[in-house]
Design brief:
The protein is mainly α and 219 residues long. The protein has helices spanning 10-61, 67-165, 198-207, 212-217.
Length: 219
């Protein structure tokens, strides 16, 4: 028994509809360029033939050629002018015809737009949670990193305390654990930091690119 075709989601249907939109645009653009090319070529030919017909008319007036010869050239010129009018009319009608084709597709888009919005909102909600989970994971990692750094850093405090005990220092200002201060951006020395600006988030989100200073710092 043949397997039933799986129903497309609204997003998949949108994908197909907008492929058709692009196909319609491309089809009309090709047709437009062809019509413009035809019109350009006809204009050049008409310009040349108008000179020729004018010369033939002068020859006819001077009885150097028969009427039929002049009339044949004149008819040929008139036919080309008619063809030019058709080509130019085709170009002028192209935009309206394209809009009619696109409107048919737009009607189909409207039919599934509500379902599409629901799917889009669900997708955004899922990734919003993923993004915030990534933030929580990052902050958890920061605390784990602090504990591991403190395992070596703590002796700075102990050394200071020992100096106080020996009277070599009046007071020990050194913290007993590693702090995040050294990881924030230092604009004075142009040292990159862990603080993330709106611009950096937008750049990464939209284009997948990152600060060259940060990339240099992790080499």
């Amino acid at each position: 028994m043949a397997k039933a075709k799986e129903k497309q989601t609204a997003v998949q249907q949108m994908e197909e509809l907008f492929k058709k939109v692009e196909e319609v645009k491309e089809k009309f653009e090709i047709a437009l360029q062809k019509a413009l090319g035809e019109a350009k070529m006809l204009k050049q030919e008409i310009q040349e033939e108008e000179k020729e017909v004018q010369e033939l008319y002068t020859m006819y007036v001077l009885d150097q050629i028969v009427l039929e010869t002049y009339q044949e050239a004149k008819n040929k010129l008139d036919n080309k002018k008619k063809l030019l009018a058709v080509a130019e009319g085709k170009s002028a009608d192209m935009e309206d015809l394209k809009k009619k084709e696109l409107y048919k597709l737009y009607q189909q888009v409207k039919e599934i737009e509500d379902d599409y919005r629901k799917e889009d909102n669900r997708n955004i909600a899922v990734h919003r949670k993923r993004i915030f989970q990534a933030k929580v994971d990052y902050l958890k990692f920061m605390h784990e990193a602090q504990k591991e750094m403190t395992a070596t850093y703590k002796f700075n405090r102990k050394i200071g305390d020992l100096k106080v005990d020996l009277g070599l220092l009046a007071y020990n200002h050194t913290a007993g654990f590693a702090t995040a201060n050294r990881f924030f951006e230092d604009t004075y020395s142009r040292t990159p930091g862990i603080d993330v600006t709106r611009e950096e988030v937008t750049q990464a989100f939209n284009r997948g690119t990152y600060s060259t200073m940060i990339l240099e710092a992790i080499k």
